[in-house]
Write a structure and sequence with these properties.
Belongs to the transketolase family. DXPS subfamily. With 642 residues, the chain is an alpha/beta fold. Helices cover 39% and strands 15% of the residues. Helix 6 (129-142) runs parallel beside helix 7, helix 14 (329-338) packs across helix 20 and helix 16 runs parallel beside helix 18 (407-415).
């Protein structure tokens, strides 16, 4: 049975709202109080778990209004990215579970169909909501079902090509679709590009607002009179807009455009959405919000507070960090970039990840050589190709998970033409709390299949700098892959004998009675720790393509068996290629390949995720011992654990 709906004197509304059906029983006058309570509890919740803060605070009123007006989950709300869906989760039966947000067995930081019937479509990457909502709207029509589809997309996500492809298609189909543009002038960083300037003109031009005002009045009338007035006035109004050159881009694409309206005015939001709910065809409501609304620190610096670790709500939170003095891989890359000031041919490109990729300082010093292209991964790669074709040395700084959107451009526009583009690929491997949508599991498998593309997998800062230096010098495309987290300075061992040569990090005294472990990137340090008391020769491959077979083949031949360890997909991974090539070369030694299994690993701590894949220290030690017992049964070489 639903909880009692209180009168306006009750102090706690949120505790009585378990599902949106409860919310819809509230009188409209109480929604502002509910928004204050939801915002307060959201801050308290994220303070205990960490997560995305500023984006969620900015859409509290919009979230309440959408669930108040639409019959969810029958009506579909499709949230783009999911950075702003915490309030949505709290209103749809998951408020108590938010204490384990982004933790193992707790709610995801993004929307997931498997998590709730109210999560109509899974998210994680940006700019998918309009396509999905359009598909749902068409499906409803084809199946003669009465339900509405609403896409909620930010102005940052709207910079991606897929969003425009969907708008173009929706305008042609004239399907029953509502797009809510949440315009806070940001993605993670400040937005860039001509679209941002267009939205600014729509927000600020008094002529546009005056012309829109008539439309808002008509919407408020409703009923037959409003419909009649709307029919007669809209044509006149639109004619004047065209004459004055103040039409919106969305109207040119076939949408009815409404707004901009204040995204924190619940009365206006509810009234407008109720009227738009009764209309048909493609409609776009432009809502202006403030990222970080209601939390002073986040309002002042929404970039810094886009994502935070745990914090005391009474004290300004700090961005999530790996340790008080630890240098991260992103820090190490940024410091290398700082040493490139004199390289005037180096041009840096990123798809809306200036801060996340460690480019802010370089961008401040060299604004003419640092390009934030918005959430446009495909464009970023081909843009780099154009720069390279004219003799410059472009560097594309991108997360592994986002590079997945641009592999066609890597193949066709870069590798096929053998253009010298350097890819600095951050967040390779598992990323922990952000889960499967953000894991960088596939870059090695994808990349090794592409002719001309070289793959560097550094294990420490020294090798990272060496690989990046080489990447700026080679007349070929180079991908340098590195993870999230702490970056060791130098893991030691023998220096490589050639630029692409492997490194022996630790040599066994008697190879014939030992195991050869070939590791890549982050797994070098893990494997060194796991094999500390074992008869193991530890090899750092350094380059996944080309592979130093001149050094590797005799090592395989001289050891009792060999093991490959990589933090990437096992299917199609580097280990699969190594085993196939070794077999072709007649190296028939016992071999084991440890890599990420053929599943999407759930969110949790990074160590929990690694354990799921059998790639943490304890799992590696156990697998090494089992393998050693199998290949050297008489010697029983395992008598210690790390």
């Amino acid at each position: 049975m639903s909880p009692r709906i209180p009168d306006s004197t009750d102090a706690d509304l949120l505790s009585l709202i378990e599902l949106p059906a409860d919310l819809r029983r509230l009188p409209k006058r109480q929604l502002a109080q509910l928004a204050n309570e939801l915002r307060t509890q959201l801050i308290e919740s994220v303070a205990k778990t960490g997560g995305h803060l500023a984006a969620n605070l900015g859409v509290i009123e919009l979230t309440i209004a959408l669930h108040y007006v639409f019959d969810t989950p029958n009506d579909r709300l499709i949230w783009d990215v999911g950075h702003q869906a915490y309030g949505h989760k709290m209103l749809t039966g998951r408020r108590a579970a938010m204490t384990r947000l982004r933790m193992r067995d707790g709610p995801s930081g993004f929307t997931r169909r498997s998590e709730s019937a109210f999560d109509a479509f899974g998210a994680g990457h940006s700019s998918t909501s309009i396509s999905a909502a359009l598909g749902m709207a068409v499906a409803a029509g084809l199946q003669h079902e009465s339900r509405r589809s609403v896409a909620i997309i930010g102005d940052g996500a709207l910079t991606a090509g897929q969003a425009f492809e969907a708008l173009n298609h929706a305008g042609e189909l004239q399907s029953d679709l509502l797009v809510v543009l949440n315009d806070n002038e940001m993605s993670i960083s400040r937005n860039v590009g001509a679209l941002t300037e267009h939205l600014t003109r729509l927000r600020s031009n008094p002529m546009i607002n005056k012309l829109r005002q008539g439309g808002h009045t008509l919407l408020a009338h409703g009923g037959p009179l409003g419909e009649l007035l709307n029919t007669t006035r809209v044509g006149l109004r639109d004619g004047v807009k065209h004459l004055l050159g103040v039409t919106s881009l969305f109207e040119e694409l076939g949408f009815q455009y409404f707004g901009p309206i204040d995204g924190h005015d619940l009365g206006t939001l509810v009234d407008t959405l109720q009227n738009l709910r009764e209309q048909t065809g493609p409609r776009l409501l432009h809502v202006v919000t403030q990222k970080g609304r209601g939390f002073n620190a986040a309002e002042r610096d929404p970039v810094r507070y886009h994502g935070v670790g745990r914090f005391d709500p009474k004290i300004e939170p700090q961005p999530a960090a790996s340790g008080p003095s630890a240098k991260t891989w992103t820090n190490a890359f940024s410091q290398w970039l700082a040493d490139q000031d004199d390289n005037e041919k180096l041009v840096v490109i990123t798809p809306a990840m200036i801060e996340g990729s460690g480019l802010a300082e370089f961008g401040r010093r060299h604004p003419d050589r640092c390009f934030d292209v918005g959430i446009a991964e495909q464009h970023a790669v081909t843009f780099a190709g154009g720069l390279a074709a004219e003799g410059l040395r472009p560097l594309v700084a991108i997360y592994s998970t986002f590079l997945q959107r641009a592999w066609d451009q890597v193949i066709h526009d870069i590798a096929l033409q053998n253009l010298p583009v350097l890819f600095a690929v951050d967040r390779a491997g598992l990323v922990g709390p952000d889960g499967a949508t953000h894991a960088g599991s596939f870059d090695l498998a994808f990349g090794q299949a592409i002719p001309n593309l070289m793959l560097a997998v550094p294990a420490d800062e020294r090798e990272l700098r060496t690989a990046l230096d080489l990447g700026t010098e080679l007349d070929a495309p180079v991908l340098v892959r590195y993870p999230r987290g702490d970056c060791p300075a130098d893991l030691g061992g023998e220096p490589p004998t050639t630029p692409f040569g492997l490194r022996v990090r630790r040599a066994a005294e008697t190879p014939a009675d030992s195991l050869l472990v070939v590791a890549l990137g982050t797994k070098v340090a893990t494997a060194l720790n796991a094999s500390e008391n074992l008869p193991v020769t530890m090899v750092d491959l350094r380059w996944a393509k080309p592979i130093d077979w001149a050094a590797l083949a005799p090592l395989i031949e001289n050891h009792a068996g060999w093991m490959i360890v990589e933090e990437g997909s096992k299917l199609g991974g580097i280990g699969a290629t190594l085993i196939a090539t070794a077999t072709e070369r007649g190296l028939f030694k016992p071999v084991m390949h440890l890599a990420l299994p053929d599943v999407f690993i759930e969110h949790g701590t990074r160590n929990e995720c690694l354990a799921d894949g059998g790639l943490d220290v304890g799992s590696l030690n156990s697998r090494m011992c089992d393998f050693l017992r199998r290949i050297l049964p008489a010697r029983q070489p395992c008598n210690a654990t790390p």
